[in-house]
Amino acid sequence: MSVMHMQKRFVSKAWQKFVYNMSGFNKYGLLRDDLLDDSRADVGEALKRLDPKIIDERNYRLIRAAQLSLQKNILPKDQWAKYEDEKLYLTPLVKQVRKEWEEMEEWNKKY
């Protein structure tokens, strides 16, 4: 691997971490997938497919963030969501739902 490629990867990761920390949602303990709008049909369908425990954890984070926002407060720094610990739990399901819908649409066009 070339040095230039390694530098780009480092800059990219460093930039992603910077943007993640500057976005502010992590200060409320939220994860990126918590910010997906559940009123969208694809996100709603993906939420239906999630394990109830994960949905409960998501709801807890959302309620806690709303409460902190109302109080004009943030979590202590040791409780912030960390970029390194970020795991996309909903995005893969949303992509799968969209792909299924595209396949169904393609199927309906043919038949």
Summarize the structure.
The chain has 111 residues and is an all-alpha fold. The protein has helices at 3-23, 41-49, 52-70, 91-110. Helices cover 62% and strands 0% of the residues.
What can you tell me about this protein's structure?
The chain has 111 residues and is mostly helical. It is 62% helix and 0% strand. The chain has helices at 3-23, 41-49, 52-70, 91-110. The longest helix has 21 residues, at 3-23. The chain is globular, with a radius of gyration of 18 Å. The relative contact order is 0.15.
Secondary-structure blueprint of this entry?
Layout: H1 3-23, H2 41-49, H3 52-70, H4 91-110
Helix pairs in contact: 2-4
Tell me the structural class. Answer: mainly alpha
| H-E string | HHHH
Number of strands: 0
Instruction: Report strand %.
Output: under 5%
Arithmetic mean pLDDT = 91
Quick one: overall form?
globular
Spatial gap, N to C terminus: 48 Å
Low-confidence stretches: none
Radius of gyration: 18 Å
Question: From the structure provided, what is the oligomeric state, counting identical versus distinct chains?
Answer: single chain
**Tally of alpha and pi helices:** 4
**Percent helix among the residues?**
55-70%
The major beta sheet can be summarized as: none
